[in-house]
Amino acid sequence: MPPINFGRRYIRLKGLIKLRIDARSLVVTAVLLGATLVIACFGLMIGTLRLSVHEVFAALSGDAAKMTRTIVVEWRLPRVLAAMIFGAGLAVSGSIFQSLTRNPLGSPDIIGFTSGSYTGALIAMLIAGSTSFIAIAAGALIGGLATAVLIYLLAFRKGTQGFRLIIVGVATSTILSSVNSVLLLRSKAEVALTAAAWGVGSLNGISWAQSIPAMVAVVVLLLIAAVMARPLRAMELGEDAAKAHGIRSERTRLVLILIAVVLTAAPTAVMGPVSFVALAAPQIALRFTKSAQSFAPVAAMGAFLMLGADMVAQRIVPGTIFPVGVVTLSLGGLYLVGVLFRQARSSS
Questions:
Q1: DSSP assignment, residue 12?
Q2: What are the alphabetically sorted keywords of the record (predicted)?
């Protein structure tokens, strides 16, 4: 009996590992990765000291002068890799939440996990009085996880439903935003300015020591999320379909929420809360691929958007490097208005 043609082309890999890859998603992922690598190369070239492509590759291979190698490998490469990996992590986190809530607004920016990470970091800086990177990162990570637990418990009632999770998350986010404002207003001016600057979200001055632990955690969680993609797609079909596939919905949902929260909290602990990427990247990738079977195009889109936004932030005003959060927040506001406008038109 010939296979049923659903109008999509798939590439089948047979052998030790059997895979069925959607051809359109593969092409979109490849194009996005290629564009991201081009932007990454450009990011290694630009700065106060402009370098050529040859000098960049010489520095990466170890054949360049010591100063050139320091600029490329120690100063610029951590920023570029962090933008790519953190963007991918935030995008996959947003995709998980949007799938669980079945709502394009169901991202960590909207639900409140980003605000929780910011609250944890503010407590470390303003109440504990510590400005060390480890203390701020630990506070952001603990704040994000604590907020996730609180929202999950408040939204749980004979199971966790997407709409209830969004409503509870938005309410929690509003409360935490007020708490953050109070903490900033009651602190000393110089400390409050430092905390507020961190709260915008920035990759400025990032180093290997700061970024490597978070990048490793994000990469590991991205691999785990790829394994959890199939149960997540089965759950999108409803509870009955999930049970038919042998999936324990509530336990699987809890694991997915934990993965998504850490994918948000780990980048936030390093660069501060960055909006827009988790909200928009999954939906933009969905419009290109017309399929939500894989996290690969979503991760590639997140890396492309974050790195592209960071390049724009460095070039808005010559000689001035803006925080990447300024660019993503501006674009995210426009995107959010567009989503609300489309939903209003579809409902009417």
A1: E
A2: Cell membrane, Membrane, Transmembrane, Transmembrane helix, Transport
